[in-house]
Predict the 3D structure of the following.
Amino acid sequence: MSFTYSASRDELVEYDKQHLWHPFTQMKEWTEGSPLLIARGEGNCLVDVDGKRYLDGVSSLWANVHGHGRTEINEAIVSQLKDLAHSTLLGLSHPSAALLAHRLAELTPGDLRWAFYSESGSTAVEIAIKMAFQYWQNLGRKEKTRFMSLREGYHGDTIGAVSVGGIDLFHQVYGPLLFNGIKAPCPYRYCQENDIPLERGTERLAAEIEALMKAYADETAAFILEPLVQGAGGILPFPPGLLKRIEELCRRHDVLLIADEVAVGFGRTGTMFACEQESVVPDFMCLGKGITGGYLPLAATMTTQRIYDGFWGDYQELKTFFHGHTYTGNPLACAAALASLDLFQTDKTIENLPPKIARIEAGLDRLAEGEHVGDVRQRGMMAGVELVLDRAGNTAYPVEERIGHKVCMAVREHGVILRNLGDAIVLMPLLSLTIEELDRIFDALENAIRDVCG
């Protein structure tokens, strides 16, 4: 039985244009068009109010894992709803929160055994930043107050998360509000700018980062990064081995390591967590997006016994982590997350990824032959296609042409939803997509590029 709306399609469009402010959207342009109203999700597709079906090529903003309308997750949420919709974790607990914390402690690498819940990736990062800062304060290391991060990094839109971000387009305007961090080079762009093949960039980049560590380690609380690939920067992969080298530098210079796995976790890079691929165990791991299979807002900041012990003490010592959210560890979201983790096992989600990853690579190779494709990038199930006016001269399109946006609008005509980051088209398909559906996405994108770019 479908939900029935008390308004017509035209009324819904007008309500949207008159009252709804959309994220990352210039509303002047938005109100000149007609919004695509998604009414329901079925399997790997989204369906609009007119009944047209679209393959979900961006996993509903990198969150959905197993497909829309999975009975197992729906039933887990309904079952939990019959017992308890919400109860605070301030002074109380509930079974779903405790069970999920246990499952996450078993699943995440190394000694990441403590889960602090919130509602979004940005808040998970904010918690890690505050915990890292207070950890050193509690230990009497008052000088360790700064944070090191990568250029082109993205960690969310709250003030702390923006402060450690490195995308000028998103973050520059808020400069006066931000704390002063230390920026290391963007690995992918550094290799491009210095004409270094990505697979050979580790030593040069490690030397750059080590120089920063030597200069600023005494005042640095933590290094934060997106492991293996920078997502919102345009799907920018790391050179192999660089993540491990950064972990080693952090240990050598007594700097905590925060791994922001919000976008790259839960199978996106081909393993459950990106850190696994280089046997890295951070001091904090930030989880979000796919943690509930993309069904309900939930995030978790995982940390180690060492960090937890830094907050242990009598109340009057004021070592308590004074932070919390009303909906921290919401029972419905925790139930969805538990059901999603079960599906990873029953569906053999991770085990089934290699042929899909190979098919994405083949699709990218095909697109790379196009005269308006300047670069293609991939890490597991994450891919980026960068469009250029002229491949021979690597000439970018003028910003005002918004070619990436136009291509994503055109691809809808072929029954696919994608999203761009500037002129980089992002493919972040559901892990449940079939090989045939991946082929449809690449066919649609190839046709859309031809339609828009010629």
About this structure: Residues 435-453 form the longest helix (19 residues). The two ends are 44 Å apart (CA to CA). The mean pLDDT is 97.
